[in-house]
Amino acid sequence: MPARVSEAFVLRTYPFQEGDLIVSFFTRDQGKLRGVAKRARKPKGPFGSALERLSQVRAAYYQRENVELVRLESTELIQTQFSLFSSYEAGIALDYIAEVSDHLLPPSEPNERFFRLISAVLADLRATPPDQLPAAVWRAATYFTFWAVRLSGILPDLRVSAVTQELAAEMAVRPIEHFSHLPWSRETGRDLRRFLYREIELHIERKLITVPLMEAL
Hints:
By secondary structure, the chain is an alpha+beta fold. The protein folds into two domains: about 5-80, CATH 2.40.50.140; about 80-215, no CATH class. The chain has six helices and five strands; from the N terminus they run E-E-E-E-E-H-H-H-H-H-H. It has helices spanning about 90-105, 110-125, 135-150, 160-170, 190-205, 210-215; strands spanning about 5-15, 20-25, 30-35, 55-60, 70-80. It has a five-stranded mixed barrel. Strand 1 and strand 2 form a beta hairpin. The longest helix has 19 residues, at about 135-150. The termini are far apart.
């Protein structure tokens, strides 16, 4: 089959054989896929920094019927999150977004709204001045978590405080940039995040690795 080319976010990579990587990536048109990136771990490999977590890329790959892994041929970098790497808090948020997306998204099911959610949250973080990133992390994590659960079809009745109920109702109808004026802190929407963390872990039947790291910030 000829190579497909899809816009995608890189969610996770892990070693596979000598010099290769398995890449989990979320495409706009084909949903979440996993593929082998040959020689990606080599110093002069063909992928460079385009396989960093949550890099937005244009991925070229071969996909065969009844074969789980695609063959990732190349990745053209569209948008890097490199500017956020100097912030520990933002780095944890990136890990969290990638982990939740990787676990919640089913294989090979396009989800345009989830794709746009990731794009919007990352754009909001990149647009935040460095000195305001620690607070912006909580805005991003809360907004992303609420919408990730909602778009996955597992949002139950919210058993949280009245104030947080109002915040969630606003999130349901407003873009993330609408909330940049609020005095966000670790406490803002904490009960909503914890409630949704539990729902995610119940749904995926495993503990999220990044949640304790988020809570320790």
